[in-house]
Amino acid sequence: MPSNVSAPATGERRHRRSLAGHIERVLPRLVVAPSLGVALFFVYGYMLWTFLLSLTNSRMLPQYDFVGFAQYARLFANERWHVAATNLVVFGGLFIVSCLVIGLLLAVFLDQRIRQEGALRTVYLYPMALSLIVTGVVWRWLLNPGLGIQAMVRGWGFEDFTFNWLVDSDMAIYTLVIAAVWQASGFVMALFLAGLRSIDDSLFQAAALDGASLPRIYTRIVLPSLRPVVFSAVMILAHIAIKSFDLVMALTGGGPGYATDLPATFMYAHTFTRGQIGLGSASAIMMLCGVLAILVPYLYSELRGQRHG
Amino acid sequence: MKTIHALAAGALLAAAVGQANAAEIEVLHWWTSGGEAKAANLLKEKLEAKGHTWKDFAVAGGAGDSAMTVLKSRAISGNPPAVAQIKGPLIKEWGDMGFLGNIDKAAEADGWDDFLPEEIAAADKVDGHYAAVPVNIHRINWIWANPEVLEDSGVDHVPQTWDEFFDAADKIREAGYIPLAHGGQPWQDATVFEVVMMGIGGGDFYRKAFVDLDPEALTSDTMIKALKTFKKLRGTMDDNIAGRDWNIATSMVINGKAAMQIMGDWAKGEFTAAGMTPGEDYECVAPPMTESMFSYNTDSLAMFDVDDEGKQQAQLDLASIVLSKDFQVQFNQAKGSIPVRLDVSLDDFDACAKASREAFDVAMDEDALVPSLAHGMAVSDSQQGAVFDVITNFFNDPDMKAETASERLVSAVRAAE
Amino acid sequence: MANMVRRHTTSARLWRAGLYTLLIVAALVYLLPLVVMLLTSLKPLDDIRAGGLLSLPSTISFEAWSKAWSSACTGMRCDGMSGYFLNSIAIVVPAVAISSFVGALNGYVLTKWRFRGANLCFALLLFGCFVPFQVVLMPMARTLGWLGLASSTSGLVLVHVVYGIAFTTLFFRNYYVSIPDEMIAAAKLDGAGFWRIFWRILLPVSGPIITVTVIWQFTQIWNDFLFGVSFAGFDSQPVTVALNNMVNTSTGVKEYNVDMAAAMIAALPTLVVYVLAGKYFVRGLTAGSVKG
């Protein structure tokens, strides 16, 4: 294909060039077309199919007895679904905010000409490399009052120390936040660090010459210029939060009771282990609606911003 | 040269056998832990001795939950394995959808109806034809007790009634031990509850409530009493039960932190691994009022419908190996369960297995043999899930009343239909 | 930057001491789970049964590691994790290569050859990032059956490529946005075409973002369990499935030291990648992808 662009013989030059020009015009679209086709089929086609299934009475395997929106009615009458949906809001919100705060703080601190910065960075970053199937088990041990942190601190002589969130229905959801923040905050730190490094040093020097204090420089100059990083980070964190599945399965199994159920685990349980594909599909569609509610405003602001700049 | 000839002849012979009726069959199962895997390996060896090839597809997790997900995904892709481990009412569901084959030939040749317990054989049939072969029988209603802890607490025997149990629990607590070791996972909660409920209500009531899911039984006074007793058990456990694996709870009994645990007979494996002998270092006793009852959990291998004649033959061969006497003995000794064949002698088994068989015989006579709901033997998986949700939530919510829970059971079960 | 406050006052010294303390404490917290895993994998089983997660092992033994690698049971095969590594590599290498390449091309087109609807196209692709994998499990099974790719390595590669493209496109697009359009315009004036500009101008400066993308994709695909367990054949199951089979036995005896050793072994490739390439990772992010 590169031959299309090599210089042609003199006589046919004009003709060949227009042909090449034509191909050149279509080529970009041709290159993206397969990916788009794949997305249309494997993402949107599947969504449509899932939506169809949510209108059926499918049980163990897909079947097509349509029952209208009955599954949605059942879904909203299901107490466990409400727990799962509320949990996602609590978990997702806390997870994203904590990751941003911790990631930003670590990045700012690491940016102070720290010795052994590389080693520290790797330490903060490594949890991202591990699968939660693995680390979930360890977190379960650590957070178990009888085995882990509580037992350890009590062993040091602080007999009254209590850290029993894992076994407390009202607090267990926060243990999911702890493990998830542990895993993803290093990545956010890397994003912010990268953002800090790409800020022009002259901005700092100018501000410093004006006598601005360090905290002031950060809040007034650095943070605003990190806005795009925040957007990227929120995007990646939101997708992690919505897809959180392994985390729940490995850490709490949804318990105590179903206090730590999330929509992803609800959907999986009903579709696959409970033979209620219709209900599971309805919950999947509700999840996707939630994704759209987050993604559309984000994309709108992002892409509109580009048109202006 | 000689060896080469011999090898070549052997290869030819094998090839000839292979052409006759041998095939490769893929087997989906969740026997992955050391003991189970070794036991199941016997099956593989015996199958391969008949010239077939066993293609192993193991998926552990969630007592078969993950394996079922994989099985569904394989079935939807039009590529199900030839053999899959399926349990209880699910066998019928797969059969009704036309996925399963027919292994009556093996059943007739070996006379399965003569030595299989009727109730268990029925679960492996679809429209009156065998579509699956049962492998073992686990008993769910067991208390595993540490005699030293009991003695140290001044409790001279494992309690026989719930009143006795709670009295004993007070003493054990005073002596500084945890009366009942437990892991707070939905299936474990349900296991304990069904054991409590079957003792209080008896076999007929259990079947009405947990097999037929009869609303009247679910809201009856007996049910409320069972729920209240179950909730009271929460007080005999420690605070850290949430999410604990069953075997961690077992190890609490083993190392003398806790006195007792209610769990199926696979718990034996943990005691054995710790070098303990039943009857001496630990005791297995039926939980209160369930002495002559038997709540069973049976593993079955279901045969999927295959066109290939070789594969069909391999399925038949596999089925008859599973029910052969020596395999039944070896496999069940390793797994902690008892043979599904009633005509197999248990002489080489441990005391708990012998007691299990006795209880099984008594329960059959007294109509007190019941399928375990907690282990997927009694109702469809959607209903099982609905029951789990209510039970586990009731158990973990200090404010929920037994009456509320029993009403929720009815509505949840109805919603899952 | 931030070098303007290097006055040697006591308060500055205190500030730096505090800074280091904070960073080191944070590092210890991050390391804790890994330490627990490592300690457990080196303990004999009796130590673990006796309790005390964080206690030091009474004797250090690598037995669990060798068992996990070569003799633990993952089903009826009792030859450990070793055999599954090749399966994982056979899935990861082509899937990472293809999805990264396609992502690079998409990013290139969507930034340097913008056509009408390019933004919409990007938005449509991006949504793929957010689809929970549990949702697509069933339709994907049906599709793989149709394509004749059920239970095969190529089927798994396809699945990972399909759901990886959204991310790779996002990474490359954000990176290429920051490359000045003037460079492309100049090349076009010189008569360079679509492919030549890609190969000669963009790819040579794409090192950092390729690193980021490859690390991301490698981690995602290596750690995948759900697709691996659902769509692999008996002879192509990845490491995570073997690990799950080892760790998640339902009614068998648990050997936590072997479990943890197996977990460490399964995680080693990704850990090594992060430790070795972590530096380039941050550099790659610095180089441009932070722009949006």
Automatic annotation (TrEMBL), chain A:
Q: PANTHER family attached here?
A: ABC TRANSPORTER PERMEASE PROTEIN
Sorted keywords for this record are: Cell membrane, Membrane, Transmembrane, Transmembrane helix, Transport
Q: How does it sit in the membrane?
A: Multi-pass membrane protein
One biological process term from GO is:
transmembrane transport
Question: Which Pfam family, any one of them, does this sequence belong to?
Answer: BPD_transp_1
Instruction: Give its localization.
Output: Cell membrane
Domain ABC transmembrane type-1: from-to ranges: 85-300
* Transmembrane segment boundaries: 26-52, 88-110, 122-142, 171-196, 217-242, 277-300
Instruction: Give the similarity note.
Output: Belongs to the binding-protein-dependent transport system permease family.
Which GO CC annotations does the UniProt entry carry? plasma membrane
Q: What is this protein called?
A: ABC transporter permease
From TrEMBL, chain B:
Q: Where is the signal peptide?
A: 1-22
Q: Which Pfam families match?
A: SBP_bac_1
Keywords associated with the record:
Signal, Transport
The keyword Signal appears for this protein: yes
* Nucleotidyltransferase listed as a keyword: no
List, alphabetically, the PANTHER family matched: ARABINOSE-BINDING PROTEIN-RELATED (PTHR43649), BINDING PROTEIN COMPONENT OF ABC SUGAR TRANSPORTER-RELATED (PTHR43649:SF28)
What is the protein's known function?
Answer: Part of a binding-protein-dependent transport system for a sugar.
Name the family: Belongs to the bacterial solute-binding protein 1 family.
Q: What is this protein called?
A: Probable sugar-binding periplasmic protein
The organism is Chromohalobacter japonicus
Q: What is the lineage of its organism?
A: Bacteria, Pseudomonadati, Pseudomonadota, Gammaproteobacteria, Oceanospirillales
TrEMBL record, chain C:
Task: Identify the keywords attached in UniProt to this record, alphabetized.
Answer: Membrane, Transmembrane, Transmembrane helix, Transport
The way this protein sits in the membrane is described as:
Multi-pass membrane protein
Domain ABC transmembrane type-1, chain residue ranges per copy: 85-277
InterPro entries, per the entry: MetI-like (IPR000515), MetI-like_sf (IPR035906)
Q: Which Gene3D superfamilies match?
A: MetI-like
**Where, per UniProt, does this protein localize?**
Cell membrane
PROSITE patterns cross-referenced by the UniProt entry: ABC_TM1
Q: Which residues cross the membrane?
A: 20-39, 84-105, 117-137, 157-176, 197-218, 260-282
Per the record, the similarity remark reads: Belongs to the binding-protein-dependent transport system permease family.
Q: Which PANTHER family match?
A: ABC TRANSPORTER PERMEASE PROTEIN, GLUCOSE IMPORT SYSTEM PERMEASE PROTEIN GLCU
State what protein this is by name: Carbohydrate ABC transporter permease
